[in-house]
Amino acid sequence: MKTERPTGRKMQRKPTPAEPRPRKLPGADAASRKPTSLRARKPKLTRIEKSERTRQLICQAAAEIIGEYGYAEASVARIMERAGLGHGTFYAYFDSRAELFDQLLPMKGIEVLDILHERVKGSADIVEMEYRGFLGFLEYANSHPWFFRLLHEAEVAAPKGYREHIDNIMARYRRALQRSFARGELPGYEEKELDTLAYLLISARDYVYAQHVSRSADSPSALSEAVETFRKFITFGLRGSPKERSG
């Protein structure tokens, strides 16, 4: 039987048709070569932004500590421990606790007012505006339990800050009531009564939450009931005209 001798040549595979390559988009190579860390990197904060963020951390920590312990026990050490910052950092932003306390309530008060402004934006009339604002305030107070101690102790512990806070609220309320008055939404009132009316509405928010909602064993139900009662109160108490007395 005749055997075949190896020729020394390697057998070559018949080339197969190459699969079509996906078409690359312009700039794809550059994007793929870009490190992931660079693609996901967030813009660095400026020096001013870092400073403001640190100040906000200190103020938020102070508000929470006051809510838990009161102004008298809100030491710099407790505040900075809550903020996660070194003790000495405090004095880069405030000369003393008193200075912080005078600024704290007005700052937090403006935050609340801005939140409520968004809640009432687009209201059809004063009744809807007050309803939305009342509901928004009660919900905010329920989810930020430190706020009421910060507010109520400030009149004695930080009177300057307390007065500024009340003035800020009144300025916004006064403007809102004047707009409603000009639109004829307060037919039973004179313009000179608007400040008194503002204080009545401000007090309603404060006392209904502090004395009713926050002390209830069923806070969500108490809040819902309070809001519905307030809706009736403002519907008949703001929009209606006083009846003429006969005889």
Give keywords:
single chain, 2 domains, 0% strand, 247 residues, Arc Repressor Mutant, subunit A, elongated, mainly alpha, Tetracycline Repressor, domain 2
Describe it for me?
By secondary structure, this protein is mostly helical. The protein has helices at 28-33, 36-39, 47-69, 76-83, 97-120, 126-143, 146-157, 159-182, 194-213, 219-238. It is elongated. 64% of the residues lie in helices and 0% in strands. The protein folds into two domains: 46-94, Homeodomain-like (Arc Repressor Mutant, subunit A, Orthogonal Bundle), CATH 1.10.10; 101-238, Tetracycline Repressor, domain 2, CATH 1.10.357.
Taken as a percent bin, the fraction of beta residues is under 5%
**Could you say which overall geometry the principal axes of the C-alpha atoms support?**
elongated
Please identify the structural class as seen in this structure: mainly alpha
Task: Let me know the CATH homologous superfamily of the largest domain.
Answer: Tetracycline Repressor, domain 2
The Cα radius of gyration reads: 33 Å
Total tally of structural domains: 2
Low-confidence stretches: none
Instruction: Count helical runs.
Output: 10
Could you outline the blueprint of secondary structure elements for this entry?
Elements: H1 28-33, H2 36-39, H3 47-69, H4 76-83, H5 97-120, H6 126-143, H7 146-157, H8 159-182, H9 194-213, H10 219-238
Helix pairs in contact: 3-4, 3-7, 5-6, 5-8, 6-9, 6-10, 7-8, 8-9, 9-10
